[in-house]
């Protein structure tokens, strides 16, 4: 079975943001850059950086790693009136403070004030440091700031347009549900599952139910389907006829071909084929197989 083509970060993001020359240094080694040792108390986070949520357990693990091996990758910062503001490496800075380090290795860069948010945003996107809501807000910022389309952004970032669109849709959720996703009490998959419910108390109550009952994404999808289409639910409950052996054989063949669960339902005049997928890459893989 052919494997799905794995997408990487596109090379066109700088083209969308013309004044961001040299951003690739964020993703490359620091060859040729002078590393300085800076007093940790003179360093502070960028208040405008897109990443807002830092997992305590993850910071603790990084602190232990720094204790054992030191800070392998320098923090990138820019000088300002208060000392040095972090552009990349806030997790490392927090972990270093956590174990009372006095100094940390830094690379001091020189950017104009208007560039700082874009650089921090792109650096985080490249390193996948953002949670799904922060990622969505980052995409929205780029689209609004530079008047680009979702298609242009998807090409620049090396992600599918459907992935960009689905991430952005999460911002339409009830704000309390968005907070649950940021806090990792529910996943982005849960959020997408409840998008068809109006963003009000019902969304919030369903999110609470997900947390209290530890529901899977599939369970939530079925709950939402029952809530939004009760007639279909009644039909499913009344239909209990055994499936035709011919359809079972077709399902088996399709499952073998596509590598995922396939369900065929037959009505009086028409039928339906349902193909399951488990994430965006899996969907692209199936589409590629079907389009051959």
Structure in a nutshell:
The protein is 49% helix and 12% strand. It is α/β, with parallel strands linked by helices.
Task: Using the 3D structure, state the CATH architecture of the largest domain.
Answer: Orthogonal Bundle
The share of residues in extended strands comes to: 5-15%
Give the total of beta strands: 7
How far apart the termini lie comes to 13 Å
Q: Please, how many helices?
A: 14
Unreliable parts: 1-12, 18-32
Task: Please describe the biggest sheet, giving its number of strands, its sense, and whether it closes into a barrel.
Answer: 5 strands, mixed
> Looking at the chains present, what oligomeric state does this protein adopt?
single chain
CATH topology of the largest domain: Arc Repressor Mutant, subunit A
Strand order of the largest sheet: 1-5-3-4-2
Radius of gyration: 24 Å
Q: Give helix and strand order, one letter per element, not per position.
A: HEEHEEHEHHHHHHHHHHEEH
- The percent of residues in helical segments reads 40-55%
Based on CA inertia axes, which overall geometry fits? elongated
Number of domains: 3
CATH C-level class of the largest domain is: Mainly Alpha
Main structural class: alpha/beta
Task: Report the average pLDDT across residues.
Answer: 77
């Amino acid at each position: 079975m052919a494997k799905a083509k794995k997408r990487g970060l596109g090379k066109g993001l700088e083209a969308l943001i013309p004044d961001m020359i040299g951003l690739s240094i964020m993703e490359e080694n620091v060859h040729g850059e002078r590393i300085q040792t800076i007093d940790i108390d003179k360093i502070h986070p960028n208040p405008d950086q897109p990443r807002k949520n830092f997992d305590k357990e993850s910071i603790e693990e990084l602190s232990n790693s720094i204790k054992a091996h030191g800070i392998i990758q320098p923090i990138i910062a820019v000088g300002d009136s208060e000392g040095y503001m972090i552009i990349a490496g806030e997790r490392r800075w927090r972990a270093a403070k956590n174990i009372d380090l006095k100094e940390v290795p830094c690379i001091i860069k020189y950017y104009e004030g208007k560039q700082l948010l874009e650089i921090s945003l792109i650096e985080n996107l490249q390193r996948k440091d953002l949670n799904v809501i922060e990622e969505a807000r980052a995409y929205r910022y780029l689209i609004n700031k530079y008047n680009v389309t979702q298609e242009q952004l998807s090409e620049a970032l090396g992600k599918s347009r459907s992935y960009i669109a689905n991430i952005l849709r999460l911002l339409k959720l009830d704000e309390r549900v968005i907070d649950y996703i940021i806090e990792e009490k529910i996943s982005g998959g849960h959020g997408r599952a409840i998008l068809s419910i109006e963003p009000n108390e019902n969304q919030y109550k369903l999110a609470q139910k997900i947390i209290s009952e530890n529901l899977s994404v599939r369970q939530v999808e079925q709950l939402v389907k029952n809530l939004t289409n009760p007639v279909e639910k009644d039909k499913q409950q009344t239909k209990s006829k055994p499936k035709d052996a011919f359809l079972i054989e077709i399902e088996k063949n399709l499952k073998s071909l596509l590598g995922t669960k396939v369900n065929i339902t037959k009505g009086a005049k028409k039928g339906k084929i349902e193909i399951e997928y488990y994430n965006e890459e899996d969907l692209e893989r199936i589409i590629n197989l079907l389009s051959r």
